[in-house]
Structure formats: C-alpha cells, structure tokens
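**Tokenised fold:**
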Amino acid sequence: MKKIGIMGGTFDPIHVGHLMIAEAVWDEYNLEKVIFIPSANPPHKHDVLTSAKHRFNMTLLATCSNPHFEVSTIEMDRVGPSYTIDTIKALKKMYGDDTDFYFIIGADCIHELPTWHKIDELLKICKFIATKRPSYEFDLSIIEKEFSDYNIQLLETPELEISSTDIRQRIKKGYSIQYITTEQVQQYIRKEELYL
C-alpha cells in the first residue's frame, strides 16, 4: 500500500511550523509524500481570506525545494464549501484503492471533528494523525467517547508557537517575519503587498 499524507489548511500564509509538522509526519509514518491542499472555501473559517491564488502560490513557494512535498488545487478547483470528505473521495479516485491517506491535523483541533461534514464516513476512509506539541496535554478518551470506530493517532512534533494570524499581525505592525516563514514566501508577501 502507498501512504500519502494530506496537509489541509488555509495557509494564510504558510509558515515553518506547517513545514516542520509535515516533515515530521512524513518521516515517522514513512509516507511517499505529503500533499498540501490550500482550502478555497473552508466551512469552519469565517474570517476574510487572502485569495486562493495567493495562498496557493505561497504554499508552492514554501514547499518546492522539498521533493516529497506537493501542492494540489483540488479544493480550489471545486465550487462550494471545501469539505474534507469530498477531497479524500476525489483523491481515492485519482490514486486508487492501493493508497492509504493520512490527514494531518493539530491535536488542539480534535474537539472540532464531531462537527465535520460526514465525519463518521471520513474516519472509515482516511486515517488521521493528530500532531501535538510536547507541552500540550491531550486526553485520547475524548476521541474514544465521540467515535466508536476512530482512526486517529497522536504524534508529538516540535514545540513551535507560530500562527498565520501572528504573521499577519506582525506585517500589519511593520515587524519582521524573518525565520517564521520561508524567504520565498516573505518576498512574495512583499511583492504582492499582502496583509498590510
């Protein structure tokens, strides 16, 4: 069986935390690759997002030097809300039955899973890897109570307090974002005058 990781998110903008987590999961689970999927119209996000085109371009720039990272427009190409179940079903058609998909999610987002569209069906066709920082306390029984047939594994990843929100706020205030995201992404943000 082939094993492919899925890193979904708004990536507004992508930062080194995303990249480190994807690399850690790729390594730990011996994945063939990790596909980054910028969401076009995420049902759980109510903030105004930077255009999908910009977010895709930044994700591409951040990942292009890594041979086992890939970026997909699968959610941007689809109209309507970006439901993960639809994305995984489409990927299964593309890759065939001999591929297992591992959806990478932050452990702090696990409590939101019961609200996800068709989550029970999703857990049957896709494994979840919940990444947690060493200092983050997480009770796995939350998952066991919510889902009888859960398919979620926990993985400790490096401690990094970085968020896309922080990056946007730093840019607005005129602060440096050096070392928080890649040099290529920083150049793109400056060139396109994003987050000002």
